[in-house]
Amino acid sequence: MYIQSHGQSNILKQRSYLIKVRGEGEIAVQPDTASVNLGVVTESKELIEGQKQNSMAANKVIDSLIRLGIDRNQIQTFDYRIESDYDYDQGKQIFRGYKITHILQVKIEDLNIIGKVVDTAVENGANYVANVQFTTRYKESYYQQALTMALNNASNKAKTIANTLRVTLNPTPILVIEGSNTIQPYESQQFALAKVASTTQIQPGQLIIQASVAAEYKYHPIGG
């Protein structure tokens, strides 16, 4: 026969008197920085010649952005690759040439010139534009605000459950587990292009910063 001790009974009683909730917080903020991928894609029969052409075109794009006011430190190579191109005729592979791709990632702190950055790059040889993304330099501060909202949300849920059950809630949680945080920026669909209108308009929209927590609260029956 199994006899439960008084200590075990208390432990089980404490465990059974728990309210477990999930809290969520969300805050919308204006972005203050952006990045965009700009690149040059060159096709050539000769590899060395194609590399030279691609390098000259990429340097021209970089120089034009620096003249526009973008700091050189804000421009970095995101991807560089060389691929062989082939045609297929009746199942036979025919070498066509090489494709050299040099993609730059450009960080922009003045959101008013994003469209101008894209236009300037294209006017100076860029034929690839993709992944326009917005973010904020103060995301940690904003996340802390969202986390506070998540904790308050969890507390309110626990209070609602306790009031509905007509039990007494200990307002201080015995366990809080921080969930994953997310920042959902506006992101353009990837696209490649040869020419862009001289008045490209790119709207930053808002960033949605989210936080979540899982919390456990003790409660006991009223008068218990």
Provide a short characterization of the protein structure:
The chain is an alpha+beta fold and 224 residues long. It has 4 helices and 9 strands. It has a domain of 104 residues: 2-Layer Sandwich (Alpha-Beta Plaits).
CATH overall fold name of the domain at 33-136: Alpha-Beta Plaits
How confident overall, as mean pLDDT?
86
Secondary-structure arrangement, i.e. CATH architecture of the domain at 33-136: 2-Layer Sandwich
Order of helices and strands, N to C? HEEHEEHEHEEEE
| Number of extended strands | 9
Summed up, the helix count is 4
Structural class call reads alpha+beta
Estimate what percentage of residues fall within beta strands.
35-45%
Biggest sheet: strands, sense, closure?
5 strands, antiparallel
CATH superfamily of the domain at 33-136: Protein of unknown function (DUF541), domain 2
The first-level CATH class of the domain at 33-136 is given as Alpha Beta
Description:
With about 220 residues, the chain is of the alpha+beta class. The protein has a domain at about 35-135: Alpha-Beta Plaits (2-Layer Sandwich). It has 4 helices and 9 strands; from the N terminus they run αββαββαβαββββ. β3 (about 75-90) and β4 form a beta hairpin. It is elongated. Residues about 1-10 and about 185-200 have low confidence and may be disordered.
